[in-house]
Amino acid sequence: MKIVDLQFEESVSTYIKPLHIANEIAAEATNIRVSLLTDSGITGKGEASPSFRVNGESVPALMALRAQILEEVKGMSVLSYMLIFDVMDRFSSSSSSLKLAIQYAVVDAFCQHTGIKPYQFFGGRKEYVETDKTVSIGSLEETIADVEAIVSEGFNVVKMKVGEDLQRDIERVVSVSDRFRNISLIVDANTGYTAKEAVFFADALYRERCPVVLLEQPVPVHDLDGLKLVRQKAQLPVGADECVRTRYDAFRLVKNDCVDFINVKLMKSGLSDALAIIEIARSANISLMIGCMCESGYGISQSVHFAAGTGAFVYHDLDSHMLLRNTGPVGFDQRGAKLFVTGPGS
Amino acid sequence: MKIVDLQFEESVSTYIKPLHIANEIAAEATNIRVSLLTDSGITGKGEASPSFRVNGESVPALMALRAQILEEVKGMSVLSYMLIFDVMDRFSSSSSSLKLAIQYAVVDAFCQHTGIKPYQFFGGRKEYVETDKTVSIGSLEETIADVEAIVSEGFNVVKMKVGEDLQRDIERVVSVSDRFRNISLIVDANTGYTAKEAVFFADALYRERCPVVLLEQPVPVHDLDGLKLVRQKAQLPVGADECVRTRYDAFRLVKNDCVDFINVKLMKSGLSDALAIIEIARSANISLMIGCMCESGYGISQSVHFAAGTGAFVYHDLDSHMLLRNTGPVGFDQRGAKLFVTGPGS
């Protein structure tokens, strides 16, 4: 089970409808498929979904790392998986999605060798998870129409992007709340507010009894004091996304009482730090959700297996394969909002 | 891989020389061997080494839990190992060594089924660890003779029990330090000091340049403020043992800056909490050692595989099989101070 080669392949997908979040609109996504070849003939596969905004990643820079990473992992055994995790941890700061792709490919190869599925490697706690679906920033009419469609598709949790215009954000969330009574809302400001704006926003939604279960990343990444203030003043659960990539980020936030929730994304943390964040959060009674970048169906399967196996997440925002063209489930089956780690007959 | 039955068997061993720690002398040890039978014919094995002093455990009480635990885990699949871990987590407060034995038996069965060794399940970081050996509380002459023997057997780290008599403790540690220049010393007070005594003790050893690498559990379990004070005043690294059993204990100590080191013992934490403590410690730059209760050779192999696989520990105090009669290594090979997860030819 020794690694003999590594292959990287770029893959471009376009959004069915451009994704509009605070201060950014995305029309397409480029992912990197990693194949990790072993001397036993088993090939492990992983997908990186790079993000410049969150991780500082660029696709050409990641592609250019192939030779260096191969040199470091060549000859290592997939059965000593943590040693390979350690090698990739050194790429955390600027190449975390590639770190994930390699780490996941190792687990994939380990699982093929041992005859188990990845969700069993991760603990086998569940066989499916339920995902939300995301609504871009848009006009009130667009927002209502988008939520209407999402609800009719069977989703019970809707994630609304906010953070560009406080008054319009409140109006959009309150309108959706008035119109759709049986859904749960995650509102994600993607760093778009000041602390006081975020408190004002949370207050307004709370007073209007909006079914908001989580306010994600209200303030900029490095404003931990601001995040703590929002957490303490807001009646709604407050979560961190962009400001938690490593275990060290998570520990600092938790130690300083800054959050109720952490949004774990494999593309920010890789498997190694995601596993650590789960243990830290559980030890501190902090809740977790799992999110995604722009993964294809295969990339999302990584998070489906991880989330099902660990059973660690209250909410699952694993919808990018639905927002992109031509990237259906691979490695999981979808029935409405539910993502199953195995097909019906398997 | 479904669980169909569970068998418990008591096993008594006597100490070659009674083990004298602060306020307790032990002459024999009773362990419980657990066999977990699955419907595929694979039997997983684990050993519990109960401790009344640390865990509040008594052997008859643990033996009496067999029917209840079997009822809870019967029919569960070993491949969904975290679900079985979760069941056993509910036994943390009063039966943590039994929790470990069941959790380890699950891993043992998982590994037999998948054709890997337990140290690979835990990450495969190393194939051996180096252990210390322990010196009881005793007269100066006895102590010197014991250390002499330990050093001649090839051990580089010696663990000295202290905590009953401050002045004599200092005298013993200083004498050993003067006489044996090339060893590292772990001094373990087993809760025997007040905070101010511990600081005085640490000061004396530091001034005499004793090669003490760790002062373990200087103060009583619930005196976290005292522990923090010792940590802040002492120039030596200060560790917690008896006061860390669960992930919650570890998180509280680390959050409140009470320790430099944590002594993880599988018998206090089981696999589930031990894994969490590793992640917390690494995230907070806290160091770890691994210790033991009174495990036999098989029980110690559990910690050897865990410590080698996770590669998480600076010091290893895995010597109980050497202190007890007729309990040689099972599942590992010993060469001097080194404990190998696999034999030379395998």
Largest chain interface and its two residue counts? Answer: A-B, 32 and 32 residues
Describe the biggest sheet of chain A? Answer: 8 strands, parallel
Query: What portion of the residues of chain A fall into strands of 2 or more residues?
Result: 15-25%
Q: Compute the gyration radius of chain A: what is it?
A: 20 Å
Strand order in space, largest sheet of chain A: 5-6-7-8-9-10-11-12
How many domains of chain A?
Answer: 2
What separation lies between the terminal Cα atoms of chain A?
26 Å
Oligomeric state of this protein = homodimer
The total count of helices of chain A amounts to 14
Q: What is the third-level CATH name, the topology of the largest domain in chain A? A: TIM Barrel
Q: Taking all residues together, what is the mean pLDDT of chain A?
A: 96
Tell me what the CATH architecture of the largest domain in chain A is: Alpha-Beta Barrel
Number of strands of chain A: 14
Look at the helices and sheets of chain A and give the structural class.
Answer: alpha/beta
For this structure, what is the CATH homologous superfamily of the largest domain in chain A?
A: Enolase-like C-terminal domain
